[in-house]
Design goal:
This protein is an alpha+beta fold and 224 residues long. The protein is built from eight helices and seven strands; from the N terminus they run H-H-H-H-H-H-E-E-E-E-E-H-E-H-E. Strand 4 and strand 5 form a beta hairpin. It is elongated and about 65 Å long. The model is unreliable at 211-217 (pLDDT under 50).
Length: 224
């Protein structure tokens, strides 16, 4: 287990720790000659203008890193058939709970944000900022109640995050993390969307007063 992974890790903290990330990103962009990847109209920029562009792209990229690592991966867990079956079962039987032991499996997620580069209000290039996660999960035991992922008992994630800008890899880190640091259910994480609940229980689930928000998030998948 990696001792320097913080509780509730954001992508920024996982990749960079306490290091100032904007300065690091700007330096990586300059080292990788980002301006030359953006087309001929930007190659004539002065050194000062190039530094300003790199710093602005770095600041925009840094905002992407506010993403919570667990939130990035949640869409994959919502697709896991054992969890979905437990959600339906605990919605059908009030006050029931299911302890679900998941076989080792892999979650993947990709989150991409397009950023336009303008000169005199004319778009000259578009950057794709991308954050990719691969998480191999081992020994995961969770509790499902009322259709919600309610508790994480144990488990470990071998997590790799990769940050790219226009195909340029700016940062990558791999570490083994306690699953309880990655998945924090709080009041419970919906495993089924409102539409799925309505289709399964046309008259409403037997669990009194239950309101499930629709599940959504970055594109993600599970396999195992």
């Amino acid at each position: 287990m990696n001792a320097d992974i913080p509780d509730a890790p954001s992508a920024r903290l996982f990749l960079f720790g306490a290091e100032p990330s904007v300065a690091r990103l700007a330096a990586e962009l300059d080292d990788n000659h980002l301006v030359h990847e953006l087309g001929t109209r930007l190659r004539g920029l002065s050194g000062e203008a190039r530094r300003a562009l790199n710093e602005e792209v770095a600041a925009t990229t840094d905002r992407l890193l506010d993403l919570d690592v667990g939130d990035l991966l949640l869409a994959g867990w919502r697709k896991h058939q054992a969890l979905r079956a437990a959600a339906r079962a605990t919605l059908a039987a009030a006050d029931s709970e299911e302890i679900v032991v998941l076989a080792s499996h892999r979650l993947t997620a990709d989150h991409t944000v397009p950023v336009e580069i303008l000169i005199d209000d004319v778009r000259v290039s578009t950057l794709d900022l991308g954050l990719a996660a691969v998480c191999d999960v081992y020994g995961l035991i969770v509790v499902v109640r009322r259709g919600l992922l309610a508790e994480v008992k144990s488990g470990e994630c071998a997590l790799t995050l990769t940050l790219q800008v226009k195909g340029i890899e700016l940062a990558r880190r791999s570490a083994r993390v306690d699953s309880r640091l990655v998945i924090r259910p709080g009041a419970g994480i919906p495993l089924l969307s409102d539409e799925e609940v309505r289709k399964t229980f046309p008259s409403g689930p037997p669990v009194d007063g239950l309101i499930l928000p629709p599940s959504s998030g970055p594109e993600s998948g599970a396999s195992g």
